[in-house]
Structures are given as structure tokens and as C-alpha cells.
Specification:
By secondary structure, this protein is α+β, with helices and mostly antiparallel strands. It has 2 domains: about 190 residues, Aldehyde oxidase/xanthine dehydrogenase, a/b hammerhead (Aldehyde Oxidoreductase, domain 3, Alpha-Beta Complex); about 140 residues, Aldehyde Oxidoreductase, domain 4, CATH 3.30.365. About 20% of the residues lie in helices and about 30% in strands. It is built from 11 helices and 15 strands. It has a 7-stranded mixed sheet with strand order 3-5-1-12-9-10-11, with helices on both faces. The protein has a 5-stranded mixed sheet with strand order 7-15-14-13-8. The protein has a 3-stranded antiparallel sheet with strand order 4-2-6. Strand 10, helix 7 and strand 11 form a beta-alpha-beta unit. Helix 7 packs across helix 8. The chain is globular and about 75 Å long.
Length: about 375
């Protein structure tokens, strides 16, 4: 079989050249922030200063009247229900009147203007009236009867439960010469990628929405954009640019839906570039975990039993928390053979930043605890 590409047998034991190496080394690689189109508008998002509040009113009139502003929009302008999400469709790209913001950084309104300066000035003219609500900040308090609900359409703040039981836990601890108990915690962690979120969207001559963005999951992006904006998925074309770091963070929607929405409403290309501050506010994080371990072992160093409780802080929206929690349960004993195991785990909503995919995907947190137990 002839091919312009090297065959597998030619590559084994030899040198291989990265297909994108030359463009990146010479600076020719196109990242989203490098993109430009004639007549392009600049988008910005107004974000909530409150971790938990109800939106009583949003007044966009002054922002819309500002010279250079093409449009100013909020969730009221979105199709109903206009939601997106990886595990559950539980997040709105922008807040609606009567709806809630659930963490500091939640999107409230968006503008598109002829210059970045005009877009920034327009944000300062948007008037939002908030009813500040009690904040859910602790995972254990969030599970208490009568705790404020992060999502009022759910019976409680527990997003997901998972458990694993193997062997005879009571017999395992009876066979132990030593029992160690400890509680361990890992914090919220930001990916801190070199390239903050950015992208460009425009309407093509064929009427399709074209989106250029750094992402890890293009087809999933298209599904969520289509559902949130109530347009056919095949009317969305997404092009993946060079990516300045991902590590799981770019599995989640960031600029995609709002960019497409602004491009549709204005009929012009729209570009977003997050500042580092906005990126830290609005991007997903690694799940903070609280982990309780009760471990039995013999004098010879054999593990006999582990009883484990895992709590994962979901933050405001589900993202990939179901998969992260299930992975944590599966890998809760680390790399060690433990014949008798009981793991009970919960993913709990709080009014914290959204947590999602992060390299390791739920394995890092329990592995830290296991190594602390055995150190």
C-alpha cells in the first residue's frame, strides 16, 4: 500500500516528527486569540459578584445605547430552556430574570461591540438587581436537613452517590493487628493553562454557524451548542485551533455558546478572549475531596480491610462529576491489594466554582489519601 505518510514499521525504533512542530516553533500556529476577520466584533460577559443570588431584573438599555455596541443580551433572549451540560443539562449560558446565579463568575449578560474598550464600557452600564441568597459552602452542611438548595428543582444538594463493597469488612478488621484512621482533604485546583479561553464565531455564506475554538471535544460542543440555542447540530461547524494547554479543562463549554449566540444575533464575526482573571473565575477546577479512611493491616504488612468515605465538591453545576466520582470509587484503594473493602461516596453541590475533568479524573485525590495512610 502506497502512502505519503510513514508506515508503522518505518517509525518503530526511529525518530518521528510532530506534525505541528514547525508551525509552533516558527510562530505560525493559529491559537484562538490570534484569529481576526474584517468587521469583527469583540464579546465580553458580565459575571456575578455573588455566590448565590436570584436575578430580580436585568436592564440592558444603557449598554445597548452606547456607541459602538452591536448588541447586549441576557438569558431572557435565549431559547427555552436554553441549557447545556456534560452529565446533565443544568447550566444556562447567561442568567434569566427570576433565575439564579450559583457561583462567583456565573454568566449574567453578554455584549458585542466594535472595540474591546466599548465592550468593557458596556458591561459597566448593565444594571442587575440581585436578591442575595444564603450560601452553601461546606459539603457536610450542604447535606443537612433544611440546607439551602443550589438547584431548587432537586430534592437535595447530593448530585450523585456511588459505592463499592467487596469481601467481609468485619472479618478483615478482626484479622488486623493495626487499624489506622484518618481524614484527608485535597483542595480546589485550577488548570492554569498558558492560553486562556478564546474563540471566534461567524455565520458562513451557507447560513451555518462557524466556530473556531480550542477544545478537546468538538462533537460534544456541537451537541451542547445546538441544544442551548435550539438550532440543528448539522448547522454548526467547529474548527479546532492550536490548543495552549487543556488537561481536561477544555472538555467543558466556555466561550462556545455565547460566541455563537452573539454571531447569530449580530450577523457579524464575534471574538472572545478571556483575561486571566476571567479564566480563573469561569473555568472548571479539579474537585476538592474530603476522604475518611479506616485501614486494617497485619504485622507482616498485609492490608486486610479498608473502610472509605469520599465526598467530592461538585460546585455549582454537574459537568463531569458523575464520572469523576465513579472513578474515585473504583480507584479508592490505590495500587494495593485489599481483600475487604467498603467505599461510600457522594458528589455534593455547593456555591463554589464548577468542577470538572482534570488530568487523573478522580484518581489523584484518593491515591493521595492511600499514600498518606501507608506512609
Amino acid at each position: 500500500m502506497s502512502s505519503e505518510y510513514p508506515q508503522v514499521n518505518d517509525l518503530i525504533g526511529g525518530r518521528s516528527i510532530r506534525v505541528d512542530a514547525r508551525e509552533k516553533v516558527t510562530g505560525q500556529a493559529q491559537y484562538p486569540a490570534d484569529l481576526f476577520m474584517p468587521g469583527m466584533l469583540y464579546g465580553r460577559v458580565l459575571r456575578s459578584p455573588h455566590p448565590h443570588a436570584r436575578i430580580l431584573s436585568i436592564d440592558l438599555s444603557e449598554a445597548r445605547a452606547l456607541p459602538g455596541v452591536a448588541t447586549a443580551l441576557c438569558g431572557d433572549d435565549l431559547p427555552q430552556p436554553g441549557l447545556y451540560g456534560l452529565n446533565f443539562r443544568d447550566q444556562s449560558p447567561l442568567a434569566r430574570t427570576g433565575g439564579k446565579v450559583r457561583y462567583v463568575g456565573d454568566g449574567v449578560a453578554a455584549v458585542a461591540a466594535q472595540t474591546p474598550q466599548a465592550a468593557e464600557a458596556a458591561l459597566n452600564l448593565i444594571r442587575v438587581e440581585y436578591e442575595v441568597l444564603p450560601v452553601v459552602s461546606d459539603m457536610r452542611a450542604a447535606q443537612s436537613p433544611g440546607a439551602p438548595l443550589v438547584h431548587e428543582n432537586r430534592p437535595d444538594n447530593i448530585l450523585h452517590k456511588a459505592e463499592l463493597h467487596h469481601g467481609d469488612l468485619q472479618a478483615g478488621f478482626a484479622a488486623a493487628d493495626l487499624i489506622i484512621e484518618g481524614t484527608y482533604a485535597t483542595p480546589l485546583v485550577d488548570h492554569a493553562v498558558l492560553q486562556p479561553e478564546a474563540g471566534l464565531a461567524y455565520i458562513g455564506d451557507d447560513g451555518r454557524v462557524n466556530l473556531w475554538v480550542a477544545t478537546q471535544w468538538a462533537d460534544e460542543d456541537r451537541r451542547q451548542i445546538a441544544e442551548a440555542l435550539d438550532i440543528p447540530k448539522d448547522r454548526i461547524r467547529e474548527v479546532i485551533t492550536a490548543i495552549g494547554g487543556a488537561f481536561g479543562r477544555r472538555e467543558d463549554i466556555s466561550v462556545q455558546i455565547i460566541l455563537c449566540f452573539l454571531a447569530i444575533k449580530t450577523g457579524r464575526p464575534v471574538k472572545f478572549v478571556y483575561s486571566r482573571t476571567e479564566s480563573m473565575l469561569a473555568s472548571t477546577k479539579r474537585h476538592p475531596f474530603e476522604m475518611r479512611y479506616r485501614t486494617g493491616a497485619t504485622r507482616e504488612g498485609k492490608l486486610t480491610a479498608m473502610e472509605i468515605e469520599l465526598l467530592a465538591n461538585v460546585g455549582a453545576y454537574a459537568s463531569t462529576s458523575l464520572v469523576v466520582l465513579n472513578t474515585a470509587v473504583t480507584l479508592a484503594t490505590g495500587a494495593y491489594e485489599v481483600p475487604n473493602v467498603s467505599v461510600e461516596a457522594k458528589a455534593v453541590h455547593t456555591n463554589a466554582p464548577v468542577t470538572g475533568a482534570f488530568r487523573g479524573f478522580g484518581s489523584n485525590q484518593p491515591n493521595f489519601s492511600v499514600e498518606m495512610v501507608l506512609s
